[in-house]
Amino acid sequence: MEFACKLAGTKLLVVLGHTACGAVKGACDDAKLGKLTGMLAKIKPAVNAVTSPEDASLRNSGNLEFVNNVAEQNVLLTIDKILKDSAVLAEMHNSGEIKIVGAMYNVHSGAVTFI
Fold first, then answer.
1. Where is Zn(2+) annotated to bind (predicted)?
2. 99: Cβ–Cβ under 8 A, 6 or more apart, which residues?
């Protein structure tokens, strides 16, 4: 991303999540399976950041609204991580040289909604 923006002239980064995401469902259910466990752990902060519903029995992959809220939160946290981890991109973003935006792709309708 740094190369694309700083040297190749990219002006827009889009962090795109999608509805009904299997990885997010796995993180919501706290799935554990080999190398998958490490990847899902990266999504857990988004699971924890979504505070609704409070009822623990509804905070799982069976609740599609919860899953989609977690997926959207994961997009926002990913943008924050990009800016935290890359001084190059953060400086370019802060100076207005590039934009970093989040969006969600609806797998049923094909619509993309920018956050």
1. 18, 21
2. 11, 12, 13, 93
